[in-house]
Amino acid sequence: MKILMLFVFGVICTTSLYSQDTANSADLKFSSFAAGVDYTSNNSLNGTTSMYSTQPISSVFVSYYHKSGFNLSLYLSNIANSDESNTASTQEYGISLGYDLDITSWLMGSVNYSHYEFSDNSNALKSNYSDLFNLNTYSQIKWWNASIDFGYYSGEANDLYLSFQTGVDFDVDNVFKKGNTLSIQPAFILFANSIDYYNDEAYNNYYFLYEYSQNNPEETVGELLESIENPQDIQDRLISRIISRRPYYYKKISKLDTDLVISDLFKEQSSFNISSLGFSLPIYYQWGSFMVNAGFSVYKPLHQPTYVNEDWTSFTNFGLTYFLSW
């Protein structure tokens, strides 16, 4: 959903540039309305994706921007493979309130608050959170741009993050038809997070192993799998019965390194470090009151807990937006 919000921001910025180029007035302030749909091939949160399944996400949104700087966005998303078994879809509903401020001719700042609601059966990456507070600064000098975003998630879990993004803008006017614009904006992105987020994910996905791990503090995942296949005592038979009734439990266990000590999943940790770095290539094509967007993103997770896969992940997104300004 962060990608969707950045997309809405891109629509507003593009509309602003279009208005400034076409307006012949000292006062370039304007209000606008946007509505659109967006599809992303995998759900992500600050550069990380689910290790249990690919979760395509489809969204619809409406956004209003007042010329004073206040803005409001509403959205609804359907996230595939995001319930506890990672096979069924769940929904996310959100509202975002913000205020944008022109600090200088080349620096803009914004403050935003977002509230989220999820389906009761949701196990999506962001489902532990209900609120987000964030501050953002954005700068553009000719073809170069950069932004810094500082945010705090709260809810059943809490997470602090910092992101830095820098890139370039390539704009080509009158593509295919006079008055149309093609914009390509490759960017480098860096995220830093508190490790608490990953502790919460472990509790959320492996809660059924918590009691077993406390009774067997030295047992590894490989030893557990052996106990499930060949139970030797009452405790082994109990955990085997629990997992056999829910095959997706076994699937989640099989995602873990066999040498991992199960109790390590639940050890309390608290640190702040770089969590991922990535590259994005968004492309926008605007004609009249419509804009089409397409993009490709690739991320490398860093400094992850031992149970998290650190392989490169990639996903694509497509969208269509209709907007009006006055």
Concise structural overview:
Residues 1-19 form the signal peptide. The protein has 326 residues and is α+β, with helices and mostly antiparallel strands.
| Percent strand | over 45%
Sketch the topology as an H/E string, one letter per element. Answer: HEEEEEEEEEEEEEHHHHHEEE
Radius of gyration from the alpha-carbon trace, in angstroms: 23 Å
Helix content: 10-25%
Mean pLDDT figure: 87
Global outline? elongated
End-to-end gap: 27 Å
Q: Which spans of ≥5 residues are poorly predicted at pLDDT below 50?
A: 3-7, 14-26
Main beta-sheet annotation: 12 strands, antiparallel, barrel
What layout of secondary structure does this protein have?
Elements: H1 2-22, E1 32-40, E2 44-45, E3 48-49, E4 57-65, E5 70-79, E6 90-102, E7 107-118, E8 129-141, E9 144-155, E10 159-168, E11 170-173, E12 181-184, E13 187-194, H2 196-206, H3 210-215, H4 221-229, H5 234-245, H6 247-254, E14 272-287, E15 290-301, E16 313-325
Report what the structure shows.
The structure is a single chain. The chain is of the alpha+beta class. Helices cover 21% and strands 46% of the residues. It has six helices and 16 strands. The protein has a twelve-stranded antiparallel beta barrel. The chain has a two-stranded antiparallel sheet with strand order 2-3. Helix 4 (221-229) packs across helix 5 (234-245). The longest helix has 21 residues, at 2-22. It is elongated and about 75 Å long. The model is unreliable at 3-7 and 14-26 (pLDDT under 50).
